[in-house]
Amino acid sequence: MAAGPGRPALAVEGLGLAIGGASILSEVGFAVARGEMLGVIGPNGAGKTTLFNVLSGLARPTAGRVLLDGRDVTGLPVHRRAKAGLGRTFQTSSLFGALTVLENVRLAAQARLGGSLSVLAFPRTHDAATRRARERLAEVGLADKEGLRAQDLSHGDKRKVEIAMMLATDPSVVLLDEPMAGVGSGDVGALTEVIRGLHRDRGTTVLMVEHHMDVVLGLVDRVAVMHHGRLLAIGTPDAVMADDTVQAAYLGEPV
Ligand SMILES: Nc1ncnc2c1ncn2[C@@H]1O[C@H](COP(=O)(O)OP(=O)(O)OP(=O)(O)O)[C@@H](O)[C@H]1O
């Protein structure tokens, strides 16, 4: 299939993942429109992180397909999907603590711009990467913290650096895995606004796993509810939260 404006930014069809006889994901299918923000929620162990692993290429599904802008990327490794425009942040911090904020983001920018081992080309790439890193840090509101060591930041600011690193790779679709995990209540509002900006100002397509229901429901266009490795429901926050099967899943009743 060729890429085109009417095509979903990301789609999955009949996704399944079985490990040692256990079915971790089963018949998961949905499509995310360009510029849409989709929340992925569900009780612990529902398969949300595994779904993100399959989307980003860390895990290979045993059934089904992943389509990025209409292109079948199911067989592509992580770095090829990243090159095709898929960005991801993780539940746990992926920063180099001893490096500064700017150095962390510059590394991501350099990876995108293509490093060169030539001593003649290096200064040029380095300058371009520094410029790009500073732009992305400004976008997430951390311009004044570029010289701090990453390990000295609050959890909320670390998450913002991770988002800046992801943005430095120019993704068109981003996967945010529990961006609020470990973030103090005082930082949740600012981080929520950074994520809202990704969507509103950049038009980035965003999929976000998050346990903070108030954050998810206040941000997203639609919510997908996972339960026992299956897609239980998908729709607007109001419709999904009014769904009896979703209520039952959260109360631990059989659905
Ligand atoms: N490599 C694996 N081998 C065996 N079981 C696995 C593997 N990866 C995940 N699982 C199991 O699959 C299920 C789904 O796990 P997953 O981490 O995707 O859930 P989750 O919805 O992200 O949970 P949480 O909200 O707690 O992060 C769990 O029961 C988990 O133990």
**What's the helix count?**
9
Question: Structural class, judged by helices and strands?
Answer: alpha/beta
* Major sheet strand order: 6-7-8-3-9-10
Poorly predicted tracts of residues: none
The CATH superfamily of the domain at 1-85 and 216-255 is known as P-loop containing nucleotide triphosphate hydrolases
Structural summary, described in words:
- The structure is a single chain.
- This protein is an alpha/beta fold.
- It has a domain at 1-85 and 216-255: P-loop containing nucleotide triphosphate hydrolases (Rossmann fold, 3-Layer(aba) Sandwich), CATH 3.40.50.
- Helix content is 37%, strand content 24%.
- It has 9 helices and 10 strands.
- The strands form 2 sheets. It has a 6-stranded mixed sheet, sandwiched between helices.
- Strand 4 and strand 5 (71-72) form a beta hairpin.
- It starts with 9 loop residues before the first strand and ends in a 5-residue tail after the last helix.
- The site of adenosine-5'-triphosphate has 10 residues, from helix 1.
